[in-house]
Each structure stands twice: as C-alpha cells, then as structure tokens.
Amino acid sequence: MTGTNPTPLELLKIDHLLTDDERDIAGAVREFVDQRVRPYVTDWYERGEVDLSLIKEAGSLGLLGMHLQGYGCAGTNAVSYGLACLELEAGDSGVRSMVSVQGSLAMFAIWKFGSEEQKQRWLPRMAEGETIGCFGLTEPDFGSNPAAMRTRARRDGTGEDADWVLDGTKMWITNGSVADVAVVWAQTDEVDHHPDGSVKQGSGIRGFLVPTDTPGFSAPKIRNKLSLRASITSELVLEGVRLPADAVLPEVRGLRGPLSCLNEARFGIVFGALGAARDCLQSAIDYAASREVFDRPLGGFQLTQAKLADMALELQKGFLLALHLGRLKDDHALDPRQVSLGKLNNVREALQIARTCRTILGANGITGEYPVLRHANNLESVLTYEGTSEVHQLIIGQALTGQNAFS
C-alpha cells in the first residue's frame, strides 16, 4: 500500500498476483494514457473527435493485436492484453474500443480464419497501425440476432474463381469511416446440411475482407452521439461491392466465425470496464478529500465512506474475476459462457460505480472538469455492444438450466 491511503485496487494487495512483465506492460500503457489521452480527451469528447495518430502510437507500443502470435504482433499473454485494456479505458472507453476493434475483431478474424496470403498482406501493417481495420457484423435491424442479417454476398460467374458481389448495410461500426479494410460478414447461398436433413440457421454466413476504396463501399460517420464521442462510429454501406474470389476468409463459415471474434473483444471489455470504474472512484476519493461540506471534508461523512467502501469492494471483486478469466484464457481453458459472466458483472458494476461517483461530486460531476459522467455515458454503450446485458443473462441462464430462451 502507498502510505496510509491505498488506491482502490491496493486494499487486497492484488499487485503480487501479476508477473513482472504484466506489471511493466500495465505501467507502460498507463504512462501512454497519462501523456497522450488524459490531457486531451475532454476536448475530443466535446468535439466528437479523436486524434487518429493514437493508432500508430499504439502500434509502436505493440498494443495492436498484442495477444496474437506472429505477423508483427507482440504475442503477449491474455492477462497482459486485459491489463492494457484496463489502462486504456481508464483514459476513455473510445480509445480502448479503437485498439480492441483493431486487434480483437479485425486482426483476430484475419489471424484466426484468413489464408496465409491474407495474413501476410494485412496483419503486419495493422500491427504497426499503418493500416486500420473495422468489423462489420451489426446491422440497423439486427444486433442481438446476427443470424438474421440481410447483407448478402452472391457469386457472379461460375467456378471457384468467380467474383463475390456484396450488398447490405452495417451499423455502429467503430473505426468504420477511417478504416483501410473492413471485415464484413454476409449471408451467402452456401448452407451446411446435417445428417438428419436439417439446415443450421446462419450456416451460410461468410467473412469477407473489403478494402474500403472498393467501388460501391462507403462509410458515413454517425453523428450526434451522446456516448463514445471520442471514438469514430460509422455506418457501412455496400452497394454492388465486387470482390475477387480470394476476398473470403477461407477457414470458417457460419456464425462461429463472428461470434468467436466477439468473444475475444468481450474478454478485453471484462478488464476495460474496470479501468473506467477505477478512474471514477479515484476521482471521487480525491474530490471527497478536498471538498468541504459543513466545515469538514466530504470524505469524513459516513454516507460518503459507505459509498466509497461499497464501490471499492465491487471494483476489487471485478478485478479478481477478470484476472481469473485471464488465467483460464492463458491456460486455453476459458469457456465463452465465462466471458459472459465477466462482461455482465464488470460492465454493470462499473456503470453503477460511475453513477455513484457522480453523486459524490454533486453538480461538479456533470462537468467535463471531472471524468465521471463521461465514463458513465461511455459505459452505457459498453453495456450494450458486443452482447447486451440481457443476452449475457440468457447465455448464463441457458448454461444453468439447459433451456434456450432466446426464441
């Protein structure tokens, strides 16, 4: 502990549970955030922009696709990646989203399901931040039910070398309007026929690598957001986008492809949301120490201390849960349902911590001078994307009961 006033994650002496390398990575990312994010993020949020040079700087630090092996990626363990997400989101959820979409969605899809030629073409430059990627799954009418997507890919011609032509729309796509390549998931006429004669829903879904300068592709920026404002969010529009036969990701078909990518990104959120919560809680502790109410520090009142104690408890529990899941992932023993447990708990508790911290700051809590309401607004999006709380509840419920309640 540091002096007599430990930080929120020091009460349980958690630090010794990390390796030296993990602590060094977390410290390096924290320094990066302190220098390149904190001094500017309020202005970015106010203007609805973000400094895109961050992506190259993140690449130079080895943060892009950092948990992937080869092709210029750092090859760190899962816990190190999680800690990096925590430190990035302590700066802003939008910055963490920019990094995790690049690495855990776009790069992971290519790394896991791409051909060797596709990996060599895209991954090294994406790891450096020279090439930006995005991930197109969600549609305007189909978020939690991606199997019903309307984006279509059809073959134009005969034989294995026939072109693909894509038509459709994707929505809420991070990095979309600044990306150089989009991983787009689309329905095809291909289906998987099972021995019992059934056809699995969504089995014709394939992933495509779409260079964003391809004719017929556009990515208008979504404006007037009240959350994740320091992040680029776009719509993807595909109108007769013609791609060569080798644009398809060859190693997967069906929903297993995009859902496994989402699971990678959700793992980062399990850690990342705690960064936003930690930043809010530390801001509230500092404020309570200096703000005087009725001739005494706000932190000296029982109600304030009760709030701080409860929030510190949930933050530490959330970190232990995240660390446990990270160790399971590094042991190749992590179940997607366990990631749902982590995402549901940690984002929900982080949002409640942000809201409670706002009450401690009072009216000051709604200003950009303090980060708490910015974090709370961001966490409203994090609560929804890559699986809503309700979806994760149903995943856990199905695991406990054996009953599918999705439909």
From TrEMBL:
A GO MF label: fatty-acyl-CoA binding
Keyword terms: FAD, Flavoprotein, Oxidoreductase, Transit peptide
Record-listed E.C. numbers: 1.3.8.6
EC main group: oxidoreductase
Occurrences of domain Acyl-CoA dehydrogenase/oxidase C-terminal (ranges): 253-400
Ranges where the Acyl-CoA oxidase/dehydrogenase middle domain occurs: 134-241
Signal peptide annotation: none
Domain of life: Bacteria
Cofactor entry: FAD
Pfam families documented for this protein: Acyl-CoA_dh_1, Acyl-CoA_dh_M, Acyl-CoA_dh_N
Domain Acyl-CoA dehydrogenase/oxidase N-terminal: 19-130
InterPro entries the record matches: Acyl-CoA_Oxase/DH_mid-dom, Acyl-CoA_Oxase/DH_mid-dom_sf, AcylCo_DH-like_C, AcylCo_DH/oxidase_C, AcylCoA_DH/ox_N, AcylCoA_DH/ox_N_sf, AcylCoA_DH/oxidase_NM_dom_sf, Glutaryl-CoA_DH_mitochondrial
Keyword Flavoprotein found: yes
Disulfide bond keyword on record: no
GO terms (BP aspect): fatty acid beta-oxidation using acyl-CoA dehydrogenase; fatty-acyl-CoA biosynthetic process
Transmembrane regions listed in the UniProt entry: none
SUPFAM superfamilies in the record: Acyl-CoA dehydrogenase C-terminal domain-like (SSF47203), Acyl-CoA dehydrogenase NM domain-like (SSF56645)
Name of the protein in its database record: Glutaryl-CoA dehydrogenase
Species of origin: Microlunatus kandeliicorticis
